[in-house]
Each structure stands twice: as C-alpha cells, then as structure tokens.
Task: inverse folding
C-alpha cells in the first residue's frame, strides 16, 4: 500500500505525468507552528533542473496545503492534505518508450503485476513520487525541531558526476544520514526496532540497494573486543552515554541517546543516454532511444529524500514512545 | 509491537528465562500438509549447544503445536499457536549480572524505556526469541514448497570462529540468502517494496547492522553502463528474464522472476569471556564477570533465522499478490 | 487515524471551511473502467441544498481526480487521489460560534483533545467530511458492479421532516442497507467478522447511535426455535442457501450468500434553529444564535454515505477473501 | 485476522477441541501489578457448568501465564502470552455432527471459505474462543483500575431462562455495559471513533446482532429538541459536563467525560435440544440429533466477555490518547 508509519502516517498518490502528486500526513501533533517557506526550501533541494548534473525537467513544485493547518500556521491535529501539480509533464517525450520495458526500471514488473502501466515517466514508479515524501518530511521536521531532534544527510564523495554525465553514463552514490538529539527509548523491541523501521523507510526509496547502521557492513568482519561501546556517566541520575558508537545509536532496537547513524547506497540511474535494446508489451524486440530527462547520479537529489524518510520514521516512533514510557 | 507481517503475520512472546517462548502464526492458507519433523529439523539448526563454537546452553527445544493444524496434519486456516518451553534456564548463572548494564546489549535501553527489565539472559531482548521465528518459518516454508518457492541461506566465509573463541573473543559474520522460484509480481510499489520489507525483517534480527540486496553496497560506486540487466525472452508469451541480476530479483519493489538475493551482516556478539566494566541500575561502577553461555559468532546460528524471516516476508507478500493480480 | 480498510483503504482529509476536502483510495484493483458521471451522480445525492429539508449550503461538489485512473478511464492499480473544493465556505456565518461549544457537537471534545479547533462549520468533525466517502464509494462500487455485488440503502419512514423543520426542530432517522450478490466466504473469523467491520464503518458516520444486522435488536428477545435459518440446496454441487435470513447474510462473521442486511440509526442533528445556552473556550456563559445552515434530518443525506461505507467495507473484505480461498 | 487493537493488541488462537486456547496481549504498559486471582475470578464468571442454565461442559479453565509478567507480579512491558488447556474436550459427543452443517452456525461458511473445518464444537468458531478475551481483559482491566476507569456490564431482564431451557429451547438476551471514569479526549476522529471501535469489538463476539450507544435505536425517532445534552461547569478551569447523556459519553467519536453507555444484543443460541434437519459436506440430507452441551441463553455467560471487549478497546484508545494530547 502507499502508506508508511503507524502514529504519524504518510499516504501518497500521483503518477509522474498525471495531474498532480500529493499526500496526506496524518497524526501530526496539534499546535506545531509550520513555516511553509521552510517546506518550500526543502522541496527546492530535490527539484529537478536546479543544479548541474540533474534532470532537466522544469518543475516549479509549488506546494498547496489543503487541510490540517489553521490560517495562523498552527497544526490542527487533523490530517494535512497537500498537492504538487505536475506542470512540465511533456508526455510527447515519452511516446518513444510507450509500451517498451526499460531495463532495471519498474516497467516490466508493474505491467506483469497490474496488466496496465503508465509508461510516461514511469508513472507511479517514478522518482517524482519522492516530492511528496519531502513535503511531508519538511512539515514533520518542524515538530522534531521543537523537541531538539535534528536530521541531516549528505552525499558521500564519489566519482565526478559531471564527467560521468559527459560520457552519457550514470553513477551510483552513497548518502550518510545522522539523527541527533534523540532521547533514550525511541523504538520498539523485536520487530519494530528503530533500525528496522529506518531500513525499510530507506529501502523504499527508488534505487536504494543497501542500508548500513553503526559499523554497518564492517561489523561482520570485526572482533567483539574491538566493538565495545563502553558506558560513561553523564550528568546526575542514571544517565549513561557511550565512549564510542559502534552501535549507531540503537541497542536492542531502541535509541540509546547517541547519534543514530546510517548510510544509504543508491545504484546508478538505469536510464542511459545511449540506445538500449529491449522488448515491448507485444514481445517485439525494440530499441529505446536515448531520450527523456534523467539524473546522472540519483543520489544527488536523494539527500533531502533520505532526510525526509528519517524524519518521518523517527517522528512516528517518538510519538509511539510517548505511550510506552511512563 | 511484537508482530510482523500483514496477511501472514507472526506474533511472538517469551523472555529468555521465563516459562516459555512462543508465537501465533496467523493467516496461513488452509489445507497445507505440515510435516512436524521438518519443523523440528529447522529448529535444531539454531539450537544452542549442538555445534562447536556456539552457546553451551542445553535446550531440547521441543515444539508444542496448540492450534491451527488438524490431527491429520493439514492447516485449518486458523491461527497456529505454538510454544517452546525454556528448560535449561539456569537463572543462578545470571545473578552476577542482575541490574548491571552489559555494553552493546539492550539492558540499558529497555531499563530506560520500561523502568523494569528481566536481566536474566536479556529477557525479551535475548536471541532466544528467534526460536519462535524459526518455528513459524519452518511451518510457513512448507506452503512455499507447494508453490515451488525455495529459500536458502549460508554463512559466508570469515575468520576462523574456533580461534576467535579460544581467545575469549567474538566475531561478526555475514549470511547470504537467496529466494528462488518466486513468480513475477510479488511486492508492492512505493512503501511496501519487497526489498524494503526484507530489509526490515532482517534488521529486526538481533545483532544485524547492514542489509544488501542485488549489487548492494557496491552499487553506490558502480556505473550505470556496467549495471544493466538486459532482458531476454523465455518461453512463449510475454515472459522475460534477465541476463544478469544486478537488481537482485526486484525492480520497482516488485519481483521480476529472477532469484532474490540479499546479504545480512551481523556484528560480533557483545558478550565477551573477559571482565567488563560498566554501571548498574543504581549508577554504581560494577564489573560483569565473564560468565554466562554465549556464542563467539552469532551469525552461525542465525542462518536458519535469516531463512525464517525471508520465508515469512515472501509468504506474506505472495498472499497479498494473490489479491492484486487478476 | 483518518483511514479505513486494509486492502482497499480510504484515507481522507479536509476541514469544512478549509480549501478542500479530499481523499486517497488505495488498493483498487487495476483495469476497472470508471464512469466519472456515475461518481458525480452519487455525490449529487448527498449534496446540500438540492432537496427540501436539507442544509442550504450551496456546493457544486466538483470532483477532481488527481491520480490512479488512466486517460482512458481504467484504474491503474495505483492510489486514486481526489479533491472536492470548498467553495461556499461563508465563514462569516460562523463568527457567532467561534470558540463556543455547541451541545452534542464535537467542539468541546476536539478542543480538549487537541487544544485547538476549527470552529467554522465544525472543522474536521463536520459531516462535510462524508463527501470524500461518497466519492470513494462511488468509484469502488464500480468494481463491485463487475462482480455482481450490489449495495442499496433507503431511508425508513419516520416523522414528516418538513413539519419538523417548520418547527425549527430536527429529527432522527433510520437507514436500511442491503448488500446482494455477495458470494459465500467474505469476512474473517473472530475479530474481523464482516458484520463487525460493517458496524465500525457505519458507527464512524457522524450522528449514528445504533447498528443492527439480521434480526438486530429483536434477536435479544427471540426464541431459538423461531430463529432457525433452515438450509436448502441450490443448484448442483454443495451450494446451500437459507429459507429465511435471521442471520442477515453472515454466519460466524462470514457471508453465507444471502443478502447482507443492516439498519443504521441516526440521532437528530444537534443544531437547532433556536438559541442555545452553552460555554465558550474562556468558560463564559454564552448563547449560540440560531444561525448556520443545517439539516433538519441528517439521515436524508446520509443514505449515499451508508451505501459508500458498505461498498468500501465489502470491497475491502472481498479483496482479502481472494487471498484466503483456494 | 485474529488480532484486535492497535497499541494494546490481543491476538488469540485455539480450537474448541484442540489442545489449548490462548492469546498474546501486547502493548500492556510496564510496572502494572497483576493480581492473578482477579484474573481467575473473571474467567470463572464465564466458565461453563458453574451456573443453572448454561452449558454442562466442565472446564477448570486454569490460566497459565507464559511471559510478560515478572515473578513479582509486575508487567514487563513485553507481550503477555497465556494459555488455557482444553481438558473436557469429549470429541466423541461430536461424532454425530462431523461434516454436518448446523443451521445458524459457522460450519457452512468456514467449510466454504477454507475447504476444511474442525466440526468438533465448532472449532475456531466456538464461543470457547472468548475465554482468551476474558483472560486478556482481566489483565488489562488492572491497568484501567490504576487510572480510575471502571467497566461494568449486566444482563438486562428478559424471559426466564430456566423455563426456556426446560422447553428445550434457547433465548436471546441483552447486555448493558457502562464505562465510568474515562477522561475527556479518548477516541479518534472520523474512522476510529471510540463508539465505532466499541461497536466492532462487541459485534466480534459470537451471536451479537445489534449495538447501541447513548440513545441507541430510540435516537432515530427522537426530536433534536428532546436530545440536547446541555453543558454545565464542573470544578475550576474549563471542565464541562452534561446534564443528560443522550450522547452516551462520546461526542464526535471522542469521550466527553460522561459515562460511556452501550447495549449489546445477543441472538438465541442456534443449537436446540431438538433434532434439526440439514445437509452434510457430501450434500446429503441429514439430521443432527439433540446432543452436545450448549447454553440456553448465551448472553448469561457473555457478560464478562462484553466487559473484556470494552476494557481492551478503551485501554487501546487511552494509550493512543497519551500520544495525541500534549
């Protein structure tokens, strides 16, 4: 289904070349003052056409809030509905790919699952869907701000994207994300571990192939004696912190007060600026010409998307925590 | 909460040193003939004390089925309740750790979240909880068998565990898991992608720090031109397969008919056979003596747990798929 | 939360006097041809101002579909987003009630729960929310049509509404709803019984105070010997039907192939055309003047809402049934 | 599925004549002291064979707690697993009904849905399942006690059950339930209204045909002017109560601090002490002899079940409320 979260839940809709993308952010606490300019700034960070090396699609990405926020800017505690119109949906560009299965895209699997697929820009499977995530994350982040919780992501250094783009190729990328200010006790034991929910949230972003937290992949070749996060006392009362953070801020699925660290790995965009041989829905051999507007490195624009997913996941589990702690 | 899955859902309960571990497997299709000996064999694969280099705890791990299976062995379509008694729960061994926060364990986070914690063997946070997963997975796997879907995991080569154990140390490990025979169309778009659900299921296992699918971490430094999974026709009609499997069997969150591949990375067990300095619930500095029965490499016994989580996840989404496909 | 349903799920948003009402209908099967004129007709049936004895608010209630339906009218299997703009939101009419708790309305409970409330028309608690239900129900009904399942409701005879309205009073009403064409096997045992889900769906409609199915309230004073639904054979094979329908089409929570019958009881609209003494958010005694535009009998316009909730519930459980039946 | 509740969730399992009934109560807050004798007393209230006019099945109904409660009686915050063995499961009594569809029972619908059915005592569809509800309710009630919330039900006067039983007949009955001490603000707007959740919980009990809250069925013929719950101030600050309780303690789906009132209507038990003509799974005409042990008025033993469902529903929504209110 097209929803994520339990107590703070985002439901999204929209095809890349349909009338609009949009979503419903349900469960936001009441009385949070929302700065819509801050929402627009986050949305601008993922907008196509605004930076070298990203898709040339021109979208103003104007966010229209339809409910849930009072005229004075405060949340009502009711669901926040919003839409972003698709304005530069030049479907004619996509005539050449109608009915043709692009390799490593979702065209074939959607077609087989549903028996119908909006081939224009990938329809529902397009990364354009992530604009709704960023809108919701940018609203929800303002609640976390009031709690002193901060979420920041950055692209890790990799191959030079401009060079790759100049060759008509694409390249993968890794995004590092850190959540700071999280109190102890966020996350549920066993199946709804904080790190399990974060993994699912990140793996739900298009093109993600791996998720690491704490020591990540390196942990599987580490010795226990090298991996101890020794406790130290902090302040009065029973408040402990750790000298190191091999655990990545989560122990037993529950936050321990240290920064929650994770790295998200994106594959290269599967659309190349070269002709690609494939099949169409009739089973004919066809060639997809090097058209369309795509990103040589999808990880560049994914940075605010990773932040949004971390914000939504942490906020959802913080609200749940309110229930479980006396 | 202590449940996982939507249409096939496992709910588990049990503390390491309480009367019993157990679970409820809900949503199993009716009329599946269950071989309980096969269940026992899977359970035996994760049993402590049965192999070199694993915990010496002696548990017979007898599975008692309480409902959901008719006397003739066929599932009724009703929830399958089961328990595994904790027989070798020598709590006296744990007197030395009562109220003491073991580093990198869940003791501190549980204590802070709930204000109470069963320190004996880690209580609910113990890896002993995974016996319930293996029971459920072993039952559910028999439904997948009838559909031609197979799930197999293996420990990837790493440091010699016996040497590590002899040094009183522990080491991490990586488990590779492959699902074969899956038809096209399993998995939901956007938030409930098959790979997102698999990631959450694996990250919910104790000690897991990273999840990879397809090209995994390597994808983030790969070029698009190197990562194309070219389509080829297979058989009659519109059935395609791929020449390579960079995607790991999932495109757009939906299975494409290729093997679904993943690697799960486990950190080293945090309990060492050396004294460890820490704090207790009173805030006193204390030392935890090198007692208890623990695994030098938790990944060894985790192999059937990884299989169980893959089985449960795939089965859940296959049942859902039944609905979405005409 | 603002969602209902599991496999076919409606999420709605919108305050009575905000920019728009709207919703997301997720899980609709693909390839269902949607007649938008039929949607408009169902929406028109609940529109205010179109019949004697209902609210004079003038709303054109134009439905804008934003996603999930291809240009040729067929569903894509993706979420169907839609909005209905609030055009005749004459907030000035409501200045007199700002901050004043109308008796038997949700003003006081919302205010206490959230610390903020949109008093204009009741905000989120307004019956205007039901326009989203009717849109979704009208879309979903077209899938049921293809399956031969029909949902029809009607207002049961009661006091003359015009007379009541002329007295400045309001009156309750009862709506009878019948689902025909449902196959055997729809509904889940125990907690998700078809009748339990229908009850929840109906009780979620504003102003509903009672739900009956089959013999309803009368069953509690009936004798068993009078209440037997004797089986009779129908056609070939093992297909039975019943000579009577005391059960209301559901046995053990699962449809038995007979019509599913229910009656939904609505209280009188709590807003009267007379001054009402109450308190405001400052605790002052205040009087609410007899303003605003309201229905003397809310049950009149609730008929299509009852149908919509029955459609959504039955469709959700039919999709689930697809999974459970071999 | 066999679960109910979101933040406090009960999952049950067990067939009437299988090894055991049982359940998992997940989400109970930690540190609640549980009196197991009180649990046993509630269970005894619904036990068969203990009162005139109820089934003669003899079950000691011993409750075994398997997890979630520390040796000192305090909840751990982890899931509470429990079982009740089926001891007096005299299956031979049921040989005469094997494969025979009892009218107004779930035999036919289960058979058609699953293709298999445990005919012994109705299997999963037996009212014996409610023992698990009562165990869970009796545990959960002790948390509500600490919050000053009380749930009490009673059988409303009806026909003399002994007379009905002496005639070999059965009769329906109505149970009135009242929740007192509930603070303002429990329940969610729109689809998860407190009264909607209560309706679903009650309709999930075997044999329930109608649910009323507040004025109930009578509301549909009442005038608005007769139905006003006028506000009055109580104590200091902005705390209001009502002079009357037509609303039944819920306005806009949210508790208003008044007692929450409801009436649950049970049909007569469909099993009579007379021969019944029906069909078997082969389609043959057969007669079910007047055997088995059944209740002439199921509503008698249902009183603690109604209480349990009210307790579980209110507790679930109170925990949720903790999140939504600042």
Result:
């Amino acid at each position: 289904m097209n929803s994520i979260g339990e107590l703070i839940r985002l439901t999204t809709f929209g095809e890349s070349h349909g009338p609009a993308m949009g979503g419903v952010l349900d469960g936001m606490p009441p009385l949070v003052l929302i700065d819509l300019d801050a929402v627009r700034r986050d949305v601008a960070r993922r907008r196509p056409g605004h930076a070298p090396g990203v898709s040339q699609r021109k979208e103003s990405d104007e966010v229209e809030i339809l409910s849930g926020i009072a005229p004075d800017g405060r949340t009502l505690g009711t669901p926040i509905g919003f839409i972003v119109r698709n304005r530069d949906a030049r479907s004619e560009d996509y005539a050449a790919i109608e009915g043709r299965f692009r390799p490593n895209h979702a065209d074939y699997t959607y077609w087989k699952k549903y028996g119908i697929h909006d081939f224009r820009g990938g329809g529902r499977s397009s990364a354009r869907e992530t604009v709704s995530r960023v809108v919701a994350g940018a609203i929800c982040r303002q609640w976390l701000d009031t709690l002193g919780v901060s979420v920041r992501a950055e692209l890790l250094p990799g191959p030079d994207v401009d060079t790759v783009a100049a060759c008509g190729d694409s390249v993968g990328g890794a995004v590092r994300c850190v959540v700071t200010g999280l109190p102890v006790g966020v996350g549920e034991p066993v199946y709804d571990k904080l790190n399990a929910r974060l993994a699912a949230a990140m793996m739900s972003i298009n093109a993600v192939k791996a998720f690491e937290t704490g020591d990540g992949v390196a942990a599987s070749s580490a010795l226990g004696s090298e991996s101890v996060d020794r406790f130290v006392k902090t302040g009065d009362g029973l408040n402990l912190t750790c000298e190191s953070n091999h655990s990545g801020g989560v122990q037993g699925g529950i936050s321990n007060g240290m920064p929650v660290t994770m790295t998200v790995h994106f594959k290269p965009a599967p659309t190349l600026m070269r002709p690609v041989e494939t099949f169409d829905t009739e089973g004919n051999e066809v060639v997809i010409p090097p058209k369309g507007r795509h990103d040589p490195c999808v990880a560049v624009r994914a940075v605010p998307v990773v932040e949004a997913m971390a914000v939504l996941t942490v906020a959802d589990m913080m609200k749940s925590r309110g229930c479980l702690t006396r």
